[in-house]
Amino acid sequence: MAVLVTGVAGFIGAATARALLERGDEVVGIDNLNDYYDPRLKQARLTKLQQQFGNRFRFERIDFADATALKAFADTFDVDGIVHLGAQAGVRYSLENPQAYVHSNLVGHVNMLELARSRGPRHMVYASSSSVYGGNKSLPFRVEDRVDHPLSLYAATKKADELLSESYANIYRLPLTGLRFFTVYGPWGRPDMAMWIFLKALYAGEPLPLFNGGEMRRDFTYVDDIVRGVVACLDGPPADDGNVKAGGSTSPHALYNIGNSRSEDLMRVVQLLEQETGKKALLDPKPMQVGDVRETFADISAIERDHGFAPATSIDEGVPRFVKWYREYHGL
To answer: Could you confirm whether 154 is annotated as catalytic?
Structure first.
């Protein structure tokens, strides 16, 4: 029996696969290796897993939005659990290529729910996003808050994934858990995210693009903390007992915020990057980006209560680790 991890060549996917393999699980990973960002980084993540874990890690290039290909591949192994992390990510890119989000995040998510329905794994954990909170003004964001006003297509697709999952949990009694991730960072991270963009600009001597003039706050969450939460949730499927779960469902479907539970000033992150690189940042203030939000802040009390999740890494520890990895990866 194996755990199926989608988006396994991605940032969180590769880190989750590593944690599962390190504890002795067999992992089957799929990814379409698209070019949203440099596929060489995705391949490097896969190579590390293949070199370290050999045949306990099996990878196949599959687009899970292709129902026929997904089913044919899934028929070749027994599925114990599913960690569905594959998605078309990014708020800003959804303004340029909305079809990619419909293809991956809507069609693809339904395909994964259908796979879970037909194969009956003990649990499917899937990725949602803090973006679903949209323009909510009440902080910290709670899973009980209404999330009916997304500010981007990306956020709308993630809210739709939660609704689709609720319907499958209700009709088919599938154990499902959705995780609303809050600004994940760390080694092997994504080049389209602020911390990587800022660090690249610092080393290149270029201005750092600061949306809303840098007056932004984010609940930055270190990747190792995120992975511990993902694995803990996978191991604890919601019971089909009619009781209300986190997020409000009485079906076997739970929703959790997974973050650091601290909202950090973006300029504090810039200061830490300056400190670690010994370089002074050139600043390029820009207006607020369409679809973006000024502040995120996770109430993690539900996942703390149900799964013992406790983030352990502050940005003062995490940012230097990311900079160290970045230097090694780029040979700086």
So the answer is: yes
* Domain spanning 2-184+222-261+296-312: CATH superfamily: NAD(P)-binding Rossmann-like Domain (3.40.50.720)
154 CB burial (10 A radius; 0-12, 13-18, 19+) = buried
pLDDT at 3: 98
Catalytic residue selected from 133, 154, 168, 222: 154
How many Cβ atoms sit within 10 Å of the Cβ of residue 280? 9
pTM: 0.95
pLDDT tens-digit profile of 55-89?
Answer: 999 999 999 999 999 999 999 999 999 999 999 98
| Cα–Cα distance measured from residue 102 to residue 27, given in angstroms and rounded to the nearest whole number | 27
For the chain, residues with pLDDT lower than 70 are 291
Which pLDDT value is given to residue 291? 63
Buried b vs exposed e over 235-264: b needs ≥16 C-beta within 10 Å? Answer: ebbbeeeeeebbbebebbbbbbbbbbbbbb
